[in-house]
Design goal:
Layout lengths: L5 H9 L5 E4 L12 E4 L6 E5 L4 E5 L4 H10 L2 E2 L8 H4 L7 H7 L6 H4 L6 E8 L4 E5 L11 H5 L7 E9 L1 E2 L3 E8 L3 H13 L4 E7 L4 E8 L1 H12 L7 E4 L2 H12 L10 E6 L5 H8 L3 E5 L4 E6 L15 E6 L12 H14 L12
Parallel strand pairs: 1-2
Antiparallel strand pairs: 3-4, 4-8, 5-9, 6-7, 6-8, 10-12, 10-13, 11-12, 14-16, 14-17, 15-16
């Protein structure tokens, strides 16, 4: 099914006799949902864009490329640096705004700017009973009623099917630069990233690629400010082998590689996404005996490549981590199981918003 209007979508959900597998662009699906495919691509188009108000409203099926083109024409951007998962997952198609929100997809800039949900102003969606729900608005301080806007971000289509989303957008920075430290062991690399993030220089990206022995620190803003902060940041690491990258295209390409997890692309095996304390990250990677890893968010996010069927959660030991299988197989659920009290709350929400259990059933259970 591919409804072209919100009304058609509500009728399709209300009339469903069984499970529905919700699909946006199909580029970033985690796990598999059984059921009749329900595509949101027909709910497309930018309905409001006010550059002066830094506000954009669009249908959930709107391709990301269309939104980025409109923003680029006004020298603006989505702040949360949307990852392109097609190379990692081997998927095709076009990423859509609804899918981005449903996955709360957020890239390296999250450590400084926040996640997708932090820039989401409002949503419209159809719940499992076929009811159209609207929440939020076009300003950041809209606090009327329950905050369903944040609830929908990261719900992966299990609470409702998004029809429209509104975002706060931001101006593009005048300049960007990356300080690259070479040859650091993983423990030292995480410590260096912590030092940079704790310094008053507004680092907007901190990543480490062990295979390349490269630790990258990004600064963005006005050109003179970037040059000053880059010099100050470099002074924090005397005696280290350091290079600087200031070419805009090269800086963008470097961070696109981090954002899209390029070091793990084209390699067989399961891919896991693990959130943990940065100080735990090097030991965790060693414990997992991963074939390859990539550290993002200063070490708070570990991308790990492991042999097919590896169960990561049993290997976490005493490390407080949150592991999601992004690609691969296995008997364990793709999403990290919640503690019992949280799981009870989540199940209660699913029953409230999808009483018949037709929206991506079992996907996040």
């Amino acid at each position: 099914m591919r409804p072209e209007t919100e009304k058609e979508l509500a009728e399709a959900i209300l009339g469903a006799n069984g499970a529905l597998a919700i699909r946006g662009g199909g580029t970033r699906a985690i796990g598999t949902a059984e059921g009749e495919p329900l595509e949101t691509g027909g709910l497309s188009g930018i309905t409001l864009y006010e550059p002066g108000a830094l506000t954009l409203v669009a249908g959930a099926g709107t391709p990301l490329a269309e939104v980025e083109a409109a923003l680029d024409a006004e020298n603006q951007r989505l702040a949360f640096e949307v990852p392109d998962m097609r190379g990692l997952l081997g998927t095709q198609g076009d990423s859509t705004l609804g899918g981005i929100v449903a996955a709360n997809a957020s890239g390296p800039r999250r450590i400084a700017a926040g996640a997708c949900r932090d820039f989401l102003l409002g949503v419209r969606f159809v719940d499992g009973a076929g009811t159209v729900v609207s929440n939020g608005g076009r300003v950041m301080k809209n606090v009327t009623g329950y905050d369903l806007v944040k609830l929908m971000a990261g719900s992966h289509g299990t609470l409702g099917v998004l029809t429209e989303v509104s975002f706060k957008v931001l101006p593009k920075p005048e300049a960007a630069a990356t300080l690259v430290l070479h040859g650091l062991p993983e423990v030292e690399a995480v410590a260096a990233m912590a030092t940079a993030l704790g310094a008053p220089y507004d680092v907007t990206g901190a990543a480490h690629d062990p295979a390349a022995q490269r630790t990258c620190l990004r600064i963005e803003g006005f050109a003179r400010s970037v040059a000053y902060r880059l010099a100050q940041l470099k002074a924090l690491f005397p005696g280290r082998e350091i290079t600087e990258e200031t070419d805009p295209g090269a800086v963008a390409a470097l961070w696109a590689g981090v954002r899209d997890v390029v070091p793990l692309q084209g390699r067989a095996g399961d891919v896991w996404r693990i959130s943990c304390k940065p100080s735990d990250a090097p030991g965790l990677a060693e414990t997992l005996e991963a074939e390859a890893v990539l550290y993002d968010w200063g070490g708070g996010l570990v991308w790990a490549l492991l042999p097919e069927g590896t169960e990561v959660r049993s290997r976490l030991g005493g490390v407080a981590g949150h592991a999601t299988r992004v690609r691969g197989t296995g008997s364990a659920p793709a999403f990290h199981p919640d503690p019992a009290p949280v799981a009870a709350l989540a199940e209660g929400l699913r029953r409230r918003f999808d009483p018949r259990g037709v929206l991506n059933p079992g996907l996040m259970a």
